[in-house]
Amino acid sequence: MPKHIGIVACSAEGAALCYRTLCAEAPVRMGKHTHPEVSIHTYPLSDYMVHIRSGNWQQVAELMLSSVQKLAAIGAKLAVCPDNTIHQAFDLVTEKSPIPWLHIAETVAQEAKNRGFQNLALTGTKYLMTSFVYPNILEKFDILCQIPEEDKREKINTIIFEELVNGIFLESSRLYFNQVIQEFKDKGCDAVVLGCTEIPILVDPNDCPLPTLDSTRLLARATLKEALAY
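The structure corresponding to this sequence follows.
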């Protein structure tokens, strides 16, 4: 039997995209209308934001751990979190987790390596872009990454929290992302990490200045592959 997947959600749009991707792509491998059993648990985003803003990753980990314990209790055998920012608490969670996890940045790094990318642009919340999450993982793959200047980080962060997590996707914001990504291209980047799980809903890979690494869908595909490795 495929592994029961537990999704530890943080914001609704990113988690929903991960869930939809799992369910939409599974039938190709499993048969019509078929996908692994999937359960989702999330605390309100506001609960997370209190601790994210204060940099209290231990408390972020406690929320994640509580979610995964609930998921394991109803039968989940594999956990994932379609939220890049709170992966800053990942190691604090996995050391106590009752079930194994996949790491979102690991899946992105592996895809980048497979496609021969060497210098990535990183977009996401300001908390993610200035964190160790992607640099530490990418270093293991001998891949470099760059982040935007502070004013652009703030603008991107505002778009994420005022628009994207609320299901608002504006053309002006899409064009702003393209502008920032073009600047990364001019600086030598060969691909861009869409490192907030809502960004792939906004940015269109068909007109993006750089090839995109869609963290949400890449995680969903890696999760499906792991769930079917029985």
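The radius of gyration is 17 Å.
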